[in-house]
Amino acid sequence: MGYQKPIPLKNQDNSPYWDAADRHELSLQRCDSCHEYAHPPGPSCAKCGSTELSWINLGSDVKARIYSYVISYRPFLPGFQDELPLIIAQAELAEVPEVKITCNVLQCKPEDIEIGMPVQMIWEDILEDRALPQWISVK
User: Fold this and answer.
1) Pairing relation of β-strands 63-72 and 118-127?
2) Is residue 120 within 8 Å of 108, Cβ to Cβ?
3) Is the peptide bond between 85 and the residue preceding it cis, with omega within 30 degrees of 0?
4) What is the pLDDT of residues 48-82, one digit of tens each?
5) What percent of the chain has pLDDT over 70?
6) Helices marked H in 7-136
7) Non-local CB neighbours of 54 within 8 Å, separated by 6+ positions
8) What residues contact 121, with CB distance under 8 A and at least 6 apart?
9) Quick one: residue 54, left, alpha or beta (phi over 0 = left, psi -120 to 50 = alpha)?
């Protein structure tokens, strides 16, 4: 039947992020002027406004901790009806704690999620050439 959920679109600002995800790697944008990381990526640094940006590859073994979360019992987008409830979180990256990534936490019961819980990024291959970063608990 194929993948039924919305697929994030690549654009000129985020294509290096999605290209890395398709290779099962995490790549983050960083300002060459002030060295701040930016996520989600954009055309310029949110802190200093510089357009001199680089992409830093953090690889495939990405760990984080749950910074915040909500549990959704209503599907707001098509394709999520059979996966309720959904745990939607902010993950604070272990290697770059100033970066918080909005994420889905899979294979976790709502009563088991907690602030500070360790999680690891995994990739869900949704099409032959497309992968989505997802997160699982590593308790």
Assistant:
1) antiparallel
2) no
3) yes
4) 999 999 999 999 999 999 999 999 998 778 778 77
5) 99
6) 15-22
7) 29, 30, 32
8) 26, 60, 62, 63, 64, 103, 133, 134, 135
9) beta
